[in-house]
Every structure is written in C-alpha cells, then in structure tokens.
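Late entry, written up from scratch paper. The run itself happened at the end of the previous shift, but nothing got recorded in the book at the time, so transcribing now.
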Amino acid sequence: MDSTDSRATAYSTVNRDSVHEVEIKRSRFITYLFRVATEAQARDHIAALRKTHFDARHHCSAFILGPDRMIQRSNDDGEPSGTAGIPMLEALAKRDTGQGTELSDVLAVCVRYFGGIKLGAGGLVRAYSDSVSQALDHSILLRRQRLRILALPAPHALAARWENELRAAGYQLEPSRWEAEHAVLQVGIDDTAIHAEQLAGFTAAMTSGAGRLSPVDTRWVDLS
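Output as recorded:
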C-alpha cells in the first residue's frame, strides 16, 4: 500500500472472530464479531448468519472498514429505524481500544430471538449498543501499523553487528538479503517523516556516515 493511500498510520481490529450472547427481558441477543477487509466479506458473513439463524426475528448489523474508517454501514433489519444498526455502529466507532487507535475492519452482527416482551425504542437502543460493547469486552484487539520498509546495504563483515544494533534500538527488521557484494538489511519503521528522520540519524551514527537507506515499500502489519 502506498503511503499516500491513507492518512492513518495505525488502527485496531479484532484478533479473531467471536460470539457473545446476552438475554434481555427474554429476548436473546447473539452478537458476532468478525474481522473483515471489504464490504463483500461483511455481507457474506451477514448472509451466512441469516441461514444459520433462519428462525431469528432480526439480524442487525454494523461495520467499519479501512484505516481511515471511510466506510461505515448499519442495518436495522426490521427493528424500528435507528434503534439497532446505528447504536451498534456507534458502539464500534466510539470504542476505546486502549491502544491509542480507533477500531476498524470490523463487522458486528446481532441476531435477536424475540422473547415476547417489547423493549421500546430506548430499550432497543440500549440492548443493541450493550450487546456489541459486551462482545468487544470479551474479544481481543490487535493493533495494525503501516510500516515503511527501507533497505540498508551492509558489508558482509558488518551486517550481523548492524542488525543487532538496530534491533537493540527497537527497530523492526525484515529478513535480510545476502547478495554477492553485500547484505541488504530491511528496516521497518512507522510510516511518518519523523520516524524516517530518526532512522536516518541513527544509521548515520551507526555506520559513520557510510550507510545509505533507500525505500522499498510500505505495508500494513499486525502487531501483537
């Protein structure tokens, strides 16, 4: 992904698909969370759950996609307008991830089995919002970071030492390439100008000015 594709350099998403159920006034609210990258993936999950829970009254959904969260959709699926999909979407959008990032690339589907007691508009809003929030409470989130990968040619005799110094300084190293004339170290940094400047300064000091960094590409990676 090119660094100009998105302003965001990090976001959070769910580590794995999960399901959590709550009962409110005899109605069952079964909330599924999925990690998704496209609208097509989200709609495939929704369609699959309609088949799995074919006897449920409602299959409400909300999803947010993209590092900048440009795609946001919700569906009340027969509940009174604004009482299901939007509260679910807000629960996703306002989630405190604890990682200094916003939540994205996530789909929530709340399957409701009606228990015979009407909740009213306010009750439905709370039920759908709380169902998603509780599902997120029981899920594991991971941080996704956009890394800028730069290449640093190194003499064979110095490559291992330079790798160790870069790791000790906290830089992420991709697999090195060993070529006939030299090794090529690949260093990953946050895709920002300030981190690029910091790496350039560190490299200059480590190599006594001999090291020459060159861009390779940018990519999104999952951080544990």
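Residues 10-139 form a domain with the Ribosomal Protein S5; domain 2 fold (CATH 3.30.230.30).
(Scratch paper discarded after transcription.)
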